[in-house]
Amino acid sequence: MLLDKANTQSHRRSNVMPTEATPTGLTAVVADYIAAVNAFDTDAIVATFAPDAYVNDARREINGVDAIRRWVEKEIGCS
């Protein structure tokens, strides 16, 4: 599955969660995230997060896309 960067980036800018579902039943941004993780694509993974996103990973708090990018590079092995 190829990622549509314009579509992915529009999710980042939106204050409302997208509601359109993919054939898998996932919302588009969740499907984009999974596809990006499977492709080990750091830029595409980070693009699925809002600028003020928060990740709680095993009781570690990761705040903002810069910290999320570092987390992705370390934990998922993307660069």
**Shape type:** globular
**% residues in beta strands:** 5-15%
Helix and strand run: HHHEEH
- Content-based structural category: mainly alpha
The number of strands is 2
By oligomeric state, this entry counts as single chain
Describe this structure in words.
- 48% of the residues lie in helices and 10% in strands.
- The protein is mostly helical and 79 residues long.
- The protein has a two-stranded antiparallel sheet with strand order 1-2.
- The radius of gyration is 12 Å and the shape is globular.
- Residues 1-16 have low confidence and may be disordered.
What brief labels describe this structure?
two-stranded antiparallel sheet, disordered N terminus
Question: What's the topology here?
Answer:
Layout: H1 5-13, H2 28-38, H3 42-47, E1 54-57, E2 60-63, H4 64-75
Antiparallel strand pairs: 1-2
Quick summary:
48% of the residues lie in helices and 10% in strands. It has 79 residues and is mostly helical.
